[in-house]
Amino acid sequence: MSATAAKGDQTIANTAHPLRPISFGDIGITIDRRDDGTIYIRPATALGDYPVRITDRLHHWAREAPDRVFMAERAEAGGWREITYAQMLDAARRIASALLARGLSADRPIVILSGNSLDHALIAFGALYAGIPFAPVSPAYSLISKDYGKLSYLMKLLTPGLVFVDDAAPFADAIRLNVPEDAEVVVSRGVLPDRDVTMLGELLVTPEAADLDVVHDAIGPDTIAKFLLTSGSTGNPKAVINTQRMLCANQIMIRDTMAFLKDEPPVIIDWLPWNHTFGGNHNIGLTLLNGGSMYLDAGKPTPAGIEQTIRNLREISPTVYFNVPKGYESLLPYLREDAELRTKFFSKLHAMFFSGAGLSPYVWNSLDELSVLATGARVPMLTGLGATETSPYFMSVTPATSRSGHVGLPVPGNEAKLVPNNGKLEVRAKGPNITPGYWRQPELTAKAFDEEGYYIFGDALKPVDPDDFTAGFDFDGRISEDFKLGSGTWVSVGPLRARFVATCAPLVRDVVIAGINRDELSALVILDLDGCRLINPALPLNDLAAATADPLIRDAFRDRLVQFMAGSTGSSTRIARAVLLDTPLSIDRGEVTDKGSVNQRAVLEHRAELIEAIYAGTASVITT
Q1: Which of 134, 185, 307, 473 is a Cys-bridge partner for 110, taking CB atoms 3.0 to 4.6 Å apart?
Q2: What is the DSSP string of 573-619?
């Protein structure tokens, strides 16, 4: 994933200034090669002991630091509503007692429809304490979807006994049309016009059950903690079983690799959705395991949400910061223009971490530059490889090796199996953090594991040095996205997409590559409207059609396409023509997931007429 950084963003080369030193675990490996080409990579360091249940750490910190803030969110008055470790433990025990009295179970779990909030966390920790599975669902399935297709499917799959939303009104239609009548609805505030609700406050005053400690102690490594839903990028979402073993083992993997987390309790300010494994497992878990404080960021990397994030960062200095590439890109102009904010952001920051997509050199170099301006050193940027099915931490870079596209090596406790597949190395995983399967979908579970019990990622890796695997691995795309041209030449879509997006920064958010059985490749381009406004500030907000038709945008994109073509080496890397999509991708048709990931196959299927028009010469294409 390489491209030339934009002019003005190369002030600090990656080696021009030292990295801020941080404690980091040793990632050594042993390698076992088989005659059939299969390669097994195992960490040289064994995984340390991990708790039996994640709420054991809640007990620990409620005893060791009872008054320390565990979580906080913005209050209506403008300050922070805080909950300490002692308060969370008390609330979890009371809510757990209320949930146990309702006879809930894995067959009648809790479904949470609303997004991140302290009340969401109270329900979740009450469920964890009671040993009752819960499933956080993307709010987009209730608030953005037009047909509620995914929500309806999930309700039938999970058969909830209780559904929680923080604010009843926005979810009224989704609940009325999709939530079974025999499921209790619990809300923080508001009413439903045609249905009784239980107030969360009622659960919070429930007396502790006499057998609560016995119930809690009976929770074991195989107890289902939650169901996390896949994004549905290849069909309907699957409910990934998350056990206590998975959550607890993965947190030790994170702590022993990112060892700086042991040096002081982490302070995190975070918006990443809890219905995904990055925010809901990785970030909440590392906060709890290490006795940290999480400040909930109601902002998002959008024009409407970024101001809230900036307001929060003016008040809270994180010690470690997690985001997606778009989030870092949205922060850049504020960090450039405001020296006080820049100092506040970087002053205590040990490391940054990104996931979900490649971070462009333009953004990476800019963050290096800004951290040097603020602190005199580069703050390490970290990443790795993981999935909902791996809890998610599976592979990690080190501060010295980190770069976009590099995913590093398996962390202690995990094993990687590399299997030859059409000239690539397909990666598979085994470890205590791997899911036992998908809830009520045994046929999909069987397909997800190979004959040796390794989870099949569907991703390919490429060694940095074929003669020295200790140098780690680069991401080499999704196996299922690759295809052949009419000439029989394979197209490696993942790396091609990454190079295209990086070269076209900041105009392009993603691209769909077309050309199956054709003579040459074409591109369906998804513009980044924030990036487009950097080229033409006069563009109206959130008007995709206006951006795709704008002459300045089209000329700027053509210049980048020419630059991309200059680096192409053959038919499998040369994109001859491109179309700027003027209609948004559809979540209902599966073209885009709730977290913004683009489903290549769904777009190609639903835009088949446009693709035919591209190759027939009747579409409005941009060429070099």
Answers
A1: 134
A2: T-EEEEEE--SPPPTTTTSB-TT--B-HHHHHHHTHHHHHHHHHT-S
- How many Å apart are CA 50 and CA 38, to the nearest integer? 31
pTM exceeding 0.85: yes
pLDDT digits (tens, 9 = 90+) for 604-613: 999 999 999 9
Domain boundary, last residue among 477, 501, 516 = 477
* Pair (436, 402) in one structural domain: yes
- Show the domain range for 207: 55-219
Is 13 contained in some domain?
Answer: no
Q: How far is CA 601 from each of CA 229, 493, 528, rounded to the nearest angstrom?
A: 20, 12, 21
Is the domain of 322 the same as that of 420? yes
List, for residues 176-227, the tens digit of each pLDDT value: 999 999 999 999 999 999 999 999 999 999 999 999 999 999 999 999 999 9
Count of structural domains, the chain: 3
Q: Is residue 300 part of a domain?
A: yes
**Cα separations (Å) of 354 from 10, 343, 382, 534?**
21, 21, 7, 23
- Whether the per-residue pLDDT at 11 is higher than 70: the answer is no
Evaluate whether 477 touches 493 at the Cβ level (below 8 Å).
Answer: yes
pLDDT at 276 over 50: yes
Residue 249 in tokens: 């083992």
Q: 39 and 107 share a domain?
A: no
The answer to whether residues 368 and 266 belong to one domain is yes
**158 and 263 share one domain:** no
pLDDT given at position 4: 27
- CA Rg value for the chain: 24
User: What distance in Å separates the CA atoms of residue 415 and residue 258, rounded to the nearest whole number?
Assistant: 18
Q: Give the tens place of pLDDT for each residue, 47-106.
A: 999 999 999 999 999 999 999 999 999 998 889 999 999 999 999 999 999 999 999 999
